[in-house]
Amino acid sequence: MAHLSPGPSGRSLLAAALLLALPAAATPAASRCEALVAHLRSQLTDVTCFESTDLTTQNELTTPADNSLAGLPAFAFTPRTDRGVIAPSAARRPPIAGAVPGVQLQARFAGDPTGQGRFLLRLPDGWNGRLVVAGASGTRSEFNGDFAWSDFVLQQGYAYASQNKGVLNFRLVGVSATPPSDPLACRLNPSSSVWVHFYDNDPDQPFTRWAETMAEAAAVARRGVAAHYRRGPRYTYAVGTSNGGYQVRRAVESWPHLFDGGVDWEGTFVDPGVPNLLSDLPPAVLNYVDYVTGGRDPASTAARNIRAAGYPPDILAAPLSLWDRYSASFWEVTLCQWQKRLDPGYDTYGAGAASYNYVARLAASDVAGSFARRQLVLLGGVSLAAGGTVSVEAGPARKAVAGFAWLLRVA
User: Which residue ranges form the domains of the chain, and what is each CATH number?
Assistant: First the structure.
């Protein structure tokens, strides 16, 4: 064995030997975020990734602020508003027992030609080997399920992914008593003077993208999970509410190799046959005003007409009844959005949204064909019109999702 003298040359040899013995000290390991981003760089762009001390909504960093994406108009990206629209009041939300540390990644899909498709992935340190992929209701963002889905499943150890159906929310067109020049503008409700343009009604946003984006989110999430934990998920579940429920049914039936089961929570039902959205929404819009001016009499002709269209009885409560809430936030604006996409030749506010007659329009337009091209193909399970509550299992993937049974209880 060579003897290293205490002189200058001996000290040099000793230093060199120590450097050779400790190569790792000279090359720091990549952080978990750096490794994850590198693994997904061909599928994602504009990536933000961070180590989180708590992935639940108790952490202000978990859900970005509304209108926080540079370059977008107001209301195009509204995460904190979105997380509240399908969640119960704060006291009835899933309780948060403690912090859930892990990694959060949010990004755009690199291959999306519209540049609007967005993706979210949360990877808890205490992973249970399973993955949940969430749909988005309405035209909401990938943060739509933060209260209703993410907080609960993360505490159970699930990895969580979500997306925005490949489309942004809406932009403000104007404030006026009459319709603006934008042919795709919808007002927020019959009493509103606020007009908005939904990105989802643009020609480059066919509804078929909804299921495709759900499947792409599942594929990217599964790859991210495998890279982060050094093994893929044992089970992958799809969950979604309203339009997100539509995503669940289409995605699980069409891409059974990506999903082991799903929970469709009051998913939208798209079908050219009656009843459908365009046949059932106009009676509610048409009769609601008479119902209110008539003193909200449940025996009135207006009330009977609304119930005959398939709606449950009104629940009278202060400050707003059930039908008041639906009229203010859902009935007319949803009718406008779907009619402009499926039957754009109809004059929404000239002829009147309340006067839309789906059966009569079958002979005057291609609305049935538009519906059929977006129709759901169900191999198993049950479908209800929008507003119904149902759990749907996939035909090719009938594994139970017992861990989400709490979601099917009435709060």
Answer: 32-167+205-269+377-408 (3.40.50), 277-371 (no CATH)
